[in-house]
Specification:
The chain has 57 residues and is mainly alpha-helical. It contains one helix and two strands. The chain has one domain. It is 40% helix and 7% strand. A hairpin with a 4-residue loop joins strand 1 and strand 2. Keywords: Cell cycle, Protein kinase inhibitor.
Amino acid sequence: MNFHCSVSVPSAEELDEFFKEAEKHQQKQFIEKYNFDIVKDVPIEGRYEWVKLKPIE
C-alpha cells in the first residue's frame, strides 16, 4: 500500500502572522487580568495596585 499525504506547509509569512496574532491575544488577556500593560511596561487603572520596588543593594 502506498499512501500519499498532501499537507501544505505554511509559509514563513503565514507563521509570523499566526504567532503575531497569538502573542497579541496573550498580551490582551494579561492586560485585562492584571491591569498591567506588558508592552509599555506600565500599570493601568484596574483591580490591582502596582507598587514599584527598589532592588536590594
